[in-house]
Design brief:
Two copies of one chain form a homodimer. By secondary structure, chain A is mainly alpha-helical. Chain A has a domain of 151 residues: Tetracycline Repressor, domain 2, CATH 1.10.357.10. The longest helix of chain A is centred in the first third of the chain and has 26 residues. Chain A is elongated and about 60 Å long. Chains A and B meet through helix 1, helix 6, helix 7, helix 8 and helix 9 of A and helix 1, helix 6, helix 7, helix 8 and helix 9 of B.
Chain lengths: 217, 217
C-alpha cells in the first residue's frame, strides 16, 4: 500500500489520489459500524493494514479525516441515490425514483451499517463543530432535493393541489429513515419492499413490481 | 453514593433499588451521547463520581449494564410517550397523541441526544446479540402500538377506508424518526412544530395550536 509522505511523492499524483479514495471508502464503511467518533487514524490503519504514518500523510488530524469521510459518503450517496433520481423524468417520477434509489442503496448493502448520514446525524447531534455542520448541510440539501421534486410534481399537477412540498419532503424523508432503521435492525429485504409500496400508496402511483429489486447486489 | 457489594447489603433494599435507578438514568443519558457501545462501567463510574466496584455490585458485565440501560430507556419512553397516548380516547385521537407525546419528549430534552431508541437501533444494527434483540423488540412493539391505534381509528371510520394500518404505522414512525433526526441536528423547536402539523395534515385533523408546546420543560 501507498505510504508516501507529503512533499516526498514517490508515486505519481493519480496513484496518491486513488489510495486516498480507497482509504476514505474504508473509513465510510467503518463509520457506519463504529461511528464517526469511533473512527481514528489508528483504527483505520489497522483495518487497512497500513502504517499510521501512511495515513497521517493523507489526513493531518482526526477532524480532517472525519470531514473527508463525510465528503466521500456524500459522493457515494450522490452516485447511488441522487443521480439515479435525476435520471428520471422531472416531477412525480423523480419523487418515486429518489426513494427507490435509497431503498436500492440499502438493499445493495453498499455500507455495513445502512445509511451513513442517518447514523452520522444522530451521532453528531451532541457534538457541535464543523463535522456536525457538514452532516447537517448534507441532510438539509437532500431534503431540499426531495422538496424540489415534490414542487415540480405539484406544478405539473401530478399530485393533489392540497399537498405541501415541505410537508411531503418531511414525510418522504421519514419513510426513508424508517426503512433504514428497520432494515438495519432486521436485515430483511421485506422491509424495503414494504417501504417501496408505502411510498407509492402515499403518492397515489401504481404498486411496484417487487421482483425488480432482486437483481441488486 | 451507595457502594454496597452483593451479599453484603449495608442499606435496605429500597435504597439499593433507588441507587440502581439513578445509575441507569445516567446510563441512558450517556448512551444518547456516546452510544450503547461507548457505555462502559469505567465511563459511567466517572460520570457518576462513584467507584467501579460500586457499579460492578449492580451490573456484573457490560452486557448486563447495556440490557438494563435499554430497559430503563423503555421505562422512560413508556412514561413520556406511551402513557400520555393511552390516556387519549381510542382511535384517531390516540394516533395524534402518540406522535405529539414523542415530539414533547424531544422538546423537554429529557435526554441530551434525542430519542434513545432511534440512535440505539442504528448503532446496534451491525452488532447481533441480546442487546440488539432487545432494542429491536422495543422498536417493533412501538410500531405495533401505532398500528393498533391506526386500526382502531379505521374501525371507528375516523380515517378513509383505503388507509392500511401497516402502511400508516410505517409512515408515522417515519415522521417521528425525521423529527428526531432534524431536532438533534438543528436543536430547533420549529422542527417539532412542523412535525406536529405534518402529522395532522397526514391524518386529516385540524392544525394544532402550536403555543401548547411552549410550556414544556
Amino acid at each position: 500500500m501507498d505510504d508516501e509522505a507529503p512533499g516526498l511523492p514517490r508515486r505519481p499524483r493519480a496513484d496518491g489520489q486513488r489510495t486516498r479514495q480507497l482509504i476514505l471508502r474504508e473509513a465510510v464503511s467503518l463509520a457506519t459500524v463504529d461511528g464517526l467518533e469511533g473512527l481514528s487514524i489508528g483504527n483505520l490503519a489497522k483495518a487497512l493494514g497500513i502504517s499510521k504514518s501512511g495515513l497521517y500523510a493523507h489526513f493531518g488530524s482526526k477532524q480532517e479525516l472525519q470531514l473527508a469521510t463525510v465528503d466521500e459518503a456524500g459522493r457515494i450517496f450522490q452516485a447511488e441515490v441522487v443521480e439515479p433520481a435525476l435520471a428520471a423524468p422531472a416531477g412525480l417520477a423523480q419523487l418515486v425514483a429518489v426513494c427507490d434509489a435509497f431503498f436500492d442503496h440499502l438493499q445493495r448493502r453498499t455500507l455495513p451499517g445502512g445509511c451513513f448520514f442517518a447514523g452520522a446525524a444522530l451521532e453528531m447531534g451532541t457534538r457541535p463543530g464543523p463535522v456536525k455542520e457538514r452532516v447537517a448541510g448534507f441532510q438539509g440539501a437532500f431534503v431540499g432535493l426531495i422538496r424540489q421534486f415534490a414542487a415540480a410534481a405539484l406544478r405539473q399537477q401530478q399530485l393533489p393541489a392540497a399537498e405541501d412540498p415541505d410537508f411531503l419532503a418531511f414525510e418522504l424523508n421519514g419513510i426513508i429513515l424508517a426503512a433504514d432503521t428497520n432494515f438495519v435492525l432486521h436485515d430483511d429485504t421485506g422491509v424495503l419492499d414494504l417501504a417501496r409500496q408505502v411510498v407509492r400508496r402515499r403518492l397515489g402511483v401504481a404498486p411496484a413490481q417487487l421482483d425488480a429489486g432482486d437483481d441488486l447486489r
